[in-house]
Amino acid sequence: MSTDESDPVKTICPYCGVGCGIQVKQGDDPGDVKFMPWADAPVNEGRICIKGGAATQVVNHEDRLTEPLIKEDGEFREATWEEAYDRIVSEMTRIRDTYEPDAMGFFGSSKTMNEENYLLQKIARRYGTNNIDNCTRMCHASTVWALRTSLGAGAMTNSMADLREAGDLFWIQGANPGEQHPIANSQYFRQAVLEGATVIQVDPHANKTTRSFKISESDRHMHLQLNPGTDIPLLNIVIKTILENDWIDEEFIANRTEGFEHLTETLESFDKAAAAEECGVPLEDIELAAEKYAMANNAAIFTGMGMSQHTCGVDNVQNEINLALITGNLGRPGTGVNPLRGQNNVQGTCDVGAMPNVLPGYQLVDDDEARRSVEAVWGFEIPSEPGLTNVEISHEAGRSIHGLYIMGENPIMSEPDANEVAKRFEELEFCVVQDIFMTETARYADVILPATTWAERGGTVTNTDRRVQRMRGVQKVHENTKHDLEILMEIGSRLFGEDGFRFDDVEAVFEELRQVCPSYHGMTYELLGETGLHWPCYELGDEGDPYLYESSFDTENGLGQIEGVRHQPPAEVPDEEYPLILTTARLEEHYNTGTMSRRSPTLNRQHPENFVDIHPNDAARYEIEDGDMVTLRSRRGEIEVKAQVTEAIKEGVIWTTPHFAAASANRLTNDVLDDRAKIPEYKAAAAEIAITVASNGGA
Ligand code: SF4
């Protein structure tokens, strides 16, 4: 897993789902790990954003965990690996014997590699539970659900390269690639825009995407600044406008879809004018955007967490699918419905089965035939009932869940209603955290296992457009840390025996993965080489598909599923006590709970603390000035942040981030879930704001 000290190794940026190739090089001292560009990297061709360029800063950070820790009498003490393993195995065995296998929960990680997540979910299933999940639950579980059931695969239908080459119009709803996927934005989308592509942005917040395409100064592009939680009515206006004007693709609807009548019936008495008022966007603007979408030769939808993180997240994405299907914008380059995935391996973590309802390759756990085919390779029985999602596991902590195994996740900060999550974690009988730093969650652990960082180990990750790429590592910086895979092999072997849990190397794990994951079956480390392969890649020699569904969808009958949906307001709407809508999003310079980015001097300098965006009219009403310290409150907690008075945010809405432990948005967010995908509603909660300390020193 390591290489000659002086040779740079080609690997993948550990941050977002774009999957940019970078190099790392180790100096004479193992701790001296440097970033180097990779000029002909397949995705980014040498370009890099601020996060990628700073990624090596955390590798030898002084806060690294370097020894296993065991908690005794409320305090951590250093322990040997033997002690740590013994404690974990005896506690996991005790919990299974005392209760049942479903009393344990397992959190995989979108920041770790395919092989590691594959082995963790195999351990969970051998233990006897499907209570295994990862943070895709928080970002795109609803997108995956809608895409999988209506089209076939829970992933981008197209790839960044074909979108750049063939896309005429980009409909970007609830996504902010200018901030979250900077290289995709600059290298792919902006290139297409320079060559004439139009951008329609749908978002309550004017952001880096708005600025990067100069949308507000353009006649060609549009920004529809809607109220949070009104995506369904906005898309229904678009769809009804297309139906009224007969801009549909009749042949595509007739030959490739079913459910069109349901959509037309749903919209029969739909009142566009009333819906536009609800959205807070002029009707004629939405109608014009509909015309632009319908008239484009190739129109692509990009969808993000502004769509998925709602109690109606599945329906939000279904309505995007409806729009693409009725206009025939699927199955060709430059089209499709394309979720922009957040973390560098969130796609792969789902692909390899670290989810409670699916096995590797999205084979349903309650499908007897699928389960049998995986059991034939694994040699043990897999539980047939879908398990709990990670938010459900946290809700059940100390109730039906008594033990937790957490690899590289930080639920105390990342989950909604974080104060309650912390309370629940206090009730656990046993918790293991495997990580590189003492995270907010690790403080609740009984055993902490010090893992190596992304730069010190090898494996594969899968980026947002389904490209599986290899990561390669330099030498370990700290002798007594271990690679995630080594740790999992040891735990698995001690619990269940070596057979099926001890592998010669990381490639051997991938070899087993491809036996049980049909869409990865045609890949080997050698074939992945330096460019990687897009899935699906069913047989050796398949080149992988840069875009999906050319001739049919991967649904049972091969047809794309249209289904009309109706507006469902957020679970919490403003009232007298909490008169504002709180919405949340991320910054380019930080990454989720900030475990790594807050420890990177370059990134932290850009944004060392949290803040809230508030519209000037709201600020005037609350007598808040730019720079004042304010308290944000919801029914679940409060945080203190600096106010940023800006017209970028819609009136009546306040906007903040989850990155900073001292004032994380998730102390305020609502943990209500979408019924099907179980994704929380991070994007809309009722809140209030009050001035704490004025910037002029008053209170
Ligand atoms: Fe890394 Fe994403 Fe930036 Fe590329 S765009 S360098 S993958 S953070």
TrEMBL record:
It is an enzyme of class 1 (oxidoreductase). Keywords: 4Fe-4S, Iron, Iron-sulfur, Metal-binding, Oxidoreductase. GO terms for cellular component: membrane. GO terms for biological process: formate metabolic process; respiratory electron transport chain. SMART domains: Molybdop_Fe4S4. Pfam families: Molybdop_Fe4S4, Molybdopterin, Molydop_binding. Residues 6-63 form the 4Fe-4S Mo/W bis-MGD-type domain. Coiled coil: none annotated. Its EC number is 1.17.1.9. GO terms for molecular function: 4 iron, 4 sulfur cluster binding; formate dehydrogenase (NAD+) activity; metal ion binding; molybdopterin cofactor binding; NADH dehydrogenase activity. The keyword Iron-sulfur applies. InterPro entries: Asp_de-COase-like_dom_sf (IPR009010), Formate_Dh-H_N (IPR041924), Formate_DH_asu (IPR006478), MoPterin_dinucl-bd_dom (IPR006657), Mopterin_OxRdtase (IPR006656), Mopterin_OxRdtase_4Fe-4S_dom (IPR006963), Mopterin_OxRdtase_prok_CS (IPR006655), MopterinOxRdtase_cofactor_BS (IPR027467). PANTHER family: FORMATE DEHYDROGENASE H, RESPIRATORY NITRATE REDUCTASE. Belongs to the prokaryotic molybdopterin-containing oxidoreductase family. This is Formate dehydrogenase subunit alpha. The lineage of its organism: Archaea, Methanobacteriati, Methanobacteriota, Stenosarchaea group, Halobacteria. The gene is fdhF.
